[in-house]
Amino acid sequence: MISTEVLFRLVRGPVVVAEPLATYTAIRTGGPADFMVNPRDRADLVRACDYFSRQGVPLFILGKGSSLLVNDQGFRGAVIATRLLDRIAIEDEIAEVDAGVLLPVLLERLRQASLTGLDAFDTMSGSVGGALRRNAEGGSAEVIDSVEWIDIVRKGRLRRLKRRELSVGSTLPLAGEEVILGAGFRLRRISSKEKRECRQETGGNAVPSPAEGISVKVFRTPRTLSTDEDASPGELVEACGLRGKRIGGASLSLTDANTIVNAGGASSNDVFELVRLLRVSVQEKFGVKLNLELTLVGFNRNGCDDPFRT
User: Fold this and answer.
1) 206 forms bridges with which residues in the sheet?
2) pLDDT for 39-66, tens place per residue?
3) So what's the architecture of 4-81 in CATH?
4) What is residue 163's predicted lDDT score, i.e. its pLDDT?
5) CATH top class, domain 88-202
6) How far, in Å, CA of 273 to CA of 250, rounded?
7) Is the per-residue pLDDT at 213 higher than 80?
8) What is the DSSP secondary-structure string of 92-150?
């Protein structure tokens, strides 16, 4: 049984009971978590994870929430937010980065330090931890391509996974209960000429940040397509005649058929049912099983990435 007195004594960061999660997600839907903890640093996070694990309480790690859909009934467990884990340390061509750092913030720091290697992710607004967990893709690159190591919590203990232990794939080889604390990225130093050219391309020093909006990308785009005829998830969905399809307050974007928009008053169930319709329609018409970009929390079992799988 959880003792809030013990929890407040163990964790230095803010702890909230029955915290609504909708405001922490890009799509702005979802019910409350039993507990929300905001650790102040890595040690704080480890203590929180250890306490909840020993009590048998399910955990979910929350980054920016840009690819998150929480059940309307909420999450029966503890959400641990990484937003206060924001350290970036750069030495030579290695950047050691905490999981809570937002990608636009990291990219700006790297540009200031004349380092490149993660520029393919300059249109993403999520956290480093979230990008690592799902092995985010930017064009033909994956975030794991630049990783030297990843620091995780495994069974209450810190462990550093070196690059040779990280296999390339759609997700990293981590168990559901393992928590990403941060990572080291090997980058490349650019010349003054390259830096000037980069600034000209981006229109200045600022990293362009995507429009926030209340929308989410639904399916992962394969890293490579085998033939010129291969279609992206959005093109497959559009070919099913579903552009603009709406269920309740959830609507498929008119400009990007791989994006669902909260058109007003949407519930997580509206979004979930629209995702199900898109996936089933594409599989029936083309025989293609689309993989989710969304992380679904509280559907079927807590923290399950894909409740549609058998």
Assistant:
1) none
2) 999 999 999 999 998 999 999 999 999 9
3) 2-Layer Sandwich (3.30)
4) 86
5) alpha beta
6) 9
7) no
8) TTEEEEETT-BHHHHHHHHHHTTEES-GGGTT--SBHHHHHHTT-EETTEEGGGGEEEE
Q: Could you tell me if 220 and 293 are in contact, meaning their C-beta atoms sit under 8 angstroms apart?
A: yes
pLDDT mean across residues, the chain = 85
CB atoms within 10 A of CB 140: 9
For residue 155, what pLDDT band results from cuts at 50, 70 and 90? confident
**φ, ψ for residue 117, nearest 5 deg:** 145, -20
Q: Is the pLDDT of residue 197 over 70?
A: no
Q: Domain residues of the chain, as ranges? A: 4-81, 88-202, 215-297
Q: What string of DSSP letters covers 150-162?
A: EEEEETTEEEEEE
For residue 187, what are the CA distances in angstroms to 40, 91, 162, 265? 27, 10, 16, 43
Q: What is the pLDDT of residue 303?
A: 45
Q: Does domain 215-297 have CATH number 1.10.260.40?
A: no
Return the SS3 of 47: helix
In the predicted structure, residue 176 carries a pLDDT above the cut 70: no
Residue 244 tokens, joined = 């603009």
Alpha carbon distance 180, 159 (integer Å): 10
CB neighbours of 267 closer than 8 A, spacing ≥ 6? Answer: 29, 72, 248, 249, 250
